[in-house]
Design goal:
Chain A: It comes from Myotis myotis. Chain A: This is Rab-like protein 3. Chain A: Pfam families: Roc. Chain A: Belongs to the small GTPase superfamily. Rab family. The complex is a heterodimer of chains A (236) and B (394). With 236 residues, chain A is α/β, with parallel strands linked by helices. Chain A has one domain: P-loop containing nucleotide triphosphate hydrolases (Rossmann fold), CATH 3.40.50.300. Helices cover 38% and strands 19% of the residues of chain A. The radius of gyration of chain A is 18 Å and the shape is globular. Chain B has 14 helices and no strands. Chain B is flat, with a radius of gyration of 35 Å. Chain B starts with a helix and ends with a helix. The chains are: A alpha/beta (236), B mainly alpha (394). The interface between A and B is medium-sized, with 36 and 34 residues.
Chain lengths: 236, 394
């Protein structure tokens, strides 16, 4: 049963945005009844069918590592958190749609996870500013999820959604906006579920099928198609 | 004219304090949060401004800067108003308690009623507070400012004393614990490995649960967590083998998660201690500098002393005596510095000086230090008293 392949996906975001509720919803298809403050890291596992509906369908375990805390923590806490950032295959960035600061802090969260070798000094050279180059050469797939959509009033919805669209563009990632207390946002067949599935597929691909790092940009499809089937033979 | 100057000084200083409180709120307190209700920020800044104004007025009164003294009394009473309205503000602002209130009371009227009730309860207990304390004299009325200040004073002084007492004990305790524990990288790595192992165990159990749930779902069974009284009864009587398995594993997972939390906290603690450990090294360098300067001072004093009391006959003896004193001083310095040294070097000193009761020397040092400090204070006081007399006598 535990012989399936696995990928590791980090779930990052400020305190109280709803990461634990989101992870619970993703893994158990149920709403979390009693959310409490996460100390350290809580993990949950989702069983995902890679390329569902095609002949090359394969089941994988997706480990969702929900790391608690805030960006402004002491350097000792940051060094301890860095333990969980080893060998990650994907990052889900969670922010609260009602709280602008949490969206801004996502830049710092992603820098912390992607530059984990530089974390212990506690002094970020880029001082939290958005570094375009860092995200351009980043190989790890990102996904931006905005929570508490139900608490946004109808009139403000458009403005909030445009802001988050810019945010997702900065990260070169897809975005999903939902309410973690309502499972219908991720109902099978909805656009959100499709985006999620695509993200997980991308993570699995990057981990298992695209081992060579010197890909030719602009021809990803061909590589995936051709190299994928060849390499797939090794990993079965 | 002077009234104009005074009031302009007051107003500018108030605006300054208000701005400072505002900045402090934004930059320090709410650094990671979003300000949703600006009312909270305004109230905070206003209270801060008034408190600073209170101090400022007292200082001005002492210095004799402002002229209008009766207006002063009225203005001094102003800062006390915000303190009285404290609970109303707490119920009025929809922060964390407000979220709770928001769910209870949808109507604005009900919220207002609730906050008024809260305020009345607070005032009642506030008044009751005055009874056991001898802070009142019968000649003051019931709604006078003295009543208010006396009660606020009781609460404030209690708070200050509590915090000081806690700080006085906690500070040396944490300081000592950081110094006494020497954390190496190996310890931290070992603990981190344990943490990751625990996480792996949790993951493997969760994988089993996920597969069980998936197979149950495919078979058509639905697993509902037993909620409520009847749900629990039902789950006891009719339980599919899949769900039993799940609850068992879930219990194991809960225990493991608790363990992982403990390990995480321990690792964070170790990291913090390690950082403090480096401050220990730095303090060792500083102590070294102090030692060097004190040696220099000692040598200078010895030379002066030597010049003062030596003659051609006794110079040898005095030099030897001074050498003895210098030797003893150095050895004792090394003894005392051992406390603030990193572990590797401590063993060297222990080897050289032998197994001694180092703690005793520290305590002895403290006692004698205290005695000598007190006696030198006494000595200086007497000397100071004698000196003006010497000057006064013609």
């Amino acid at each position: 049963m535990a012989s399936l392949d696995r990928v590791k996906v980090l779930v990052l975001g400020d305190s109280g945005v709803g990461k634990s509720s989101l992870v619970h919803l993703l893994c158990q298809n149920q709403v979390l009844g009693n959310p409490s403050w996460t100390v350290g890291c809580s993990v949950d596992v989702r069983v995902h069918d890679y390329k569902e509906g095609t002949p090359v369908e394969k089941t994988y375990y997706i480990e969702l590592w929900d790391v608690g805390g805030s960006v402004g923590s002491a350097s000792s806490v940051k060094s301890t958190r860095a333990v969980f950032y080893n060998s990650i295959n994907g990052i889900i960035l969670v922010h609260d749609l009602t709280n602008k600061k949490s969206s801004q802090n996502l830049y710092r969260w992603s820098s912390e996870a992607l530059n984990k070798d530089l974390v212990p000094t506690g002094v970020l050279v880029t001082n939290g500013d958005y570094d375009q180059e860092q995200f351009a050469e980043n190989q790890i797939p990102l996904l931006v999820i905005g929570t508490k959509l139900d608490q946004i009033h109808e009139t403000k919805r458009h403005e909030v959604l445009t802001r988050t669209a810019f945010l997702a563009e900065d990260f070169n990632a897809e975005e999903i906006n939902l309410d973690c207390t309502n499972p219908r946002y991720l109902a099978a067949g909805s656009s959100n579920a499709v985006k999620l599935s695509r993200f997980f597929d991308k993570v699995i691909e990057k981990r298992y099928f695209l081992r060579d790092s010197n890909q030719i940009p602009g021809f990803p499809d061909r590589k995936r198609f051709w190299g994928g089937t060849l390499k797939g033979l090794h990993y079965d | 004219m002077s009234f104009l100057i005074d009031s302009s000084i007051m107003i500018t200083s108030q605006i300054l304090f208000f701005g400072f409180g505002w900045l402090f709120f934004m930059r320090q307190l709410f650094k990671d949060y979003e300000v949703r209700q600006y009312v909270v920020q305004v109230i905070f800044s206003v209270t801060f401004a008034f408190s600073c104004t209170m101090f400022e007025l007292i200082i001005f009164e002492i210095l004799g800067v402002l002229n209008s003294s009766d207006g002063l009394c009225r203005v001094l009473q102003l800062p006390l108003l915000p303190l009285e309205t404290e609970p109303v503000r707490h119920s009025a602002d929809p922060g964390l308690p407000g979220a709770f209130l928001h769910r209870l009371f949808y109507l604005h009227k009900q919220r207002l009623l609730f906050s008024c009730l809260l305020w009345l309860t607070f005032m009642y207990f506030f008044w009751k507070l005055g009874d056991p304390f001898p802070i009142l004299s019968p000649k003051h009325g019931i709604l006078s400012i003295e009543q208010l200040i006396s009660r606020v004073g009781v609460i404030g002084v209690t708070l200050m004393a509590l915090l000081s007492g806690f700080g006085a004990v906690n500070c040396p305790y944490t300081y000592m614990s950081y110094f006494l524990r020497n954390v190496t990288d190996v310890d931290i790595l070992a603990l981190e490995r344990r943490l990751l192992q625990t996480m792996d165990m949790i993951i493997s159990k969760k994988k089993r649960m996920a597969m069980t749930r998936r197979s149950m779902f495919q078979k058509g069974e639905v697993h509902n967590k037993p909620s409520g009284f009847w749900g629990v009864i039902k789950s006891i009587t009719t339980s599919a083998p899949g769900t039993e398995n799940l609850t068992l594993i879930q219990q194991e997972v809960d225990a493991l998660e608790e363990l992982s939390r403990q390990l995480f906290l321990e690792t964070a603690d170790l990291h913090a201690t390690k950082v403090k450990f480096w401050s220990q090294h730095i303090s060792f360098i500083l102590v070294g500098i102090i030692i060097v300067t004190s040696i220099r001072g000692l040598l200078i004093t010895l030379t002066k002393f030597f010049y003062a009391i030596s003659s051609s006959k006794s110079s040898n003896v005095i030099v030897l005596l001074l050498a003895q004193i210098m030797g003893m001083y150095f050895v004792s310095s090394v003894l005392l510095i051992r406390m603030s040294m990193p572990l590797e070097y401590r063993t060297i000193i222990t080897e050289v000086l032998g197994e001694l009761q180092f703690n005793f020397y520290h305590r002895w040092f403290d006692v004698i230090f205290l005695v000598s400090a007190l006696s030198s204070i006494l000595f200086l006081y007497l000397a100071h008293k004698q000196a003006p007399e010497k000057h006064m006598t013609p």
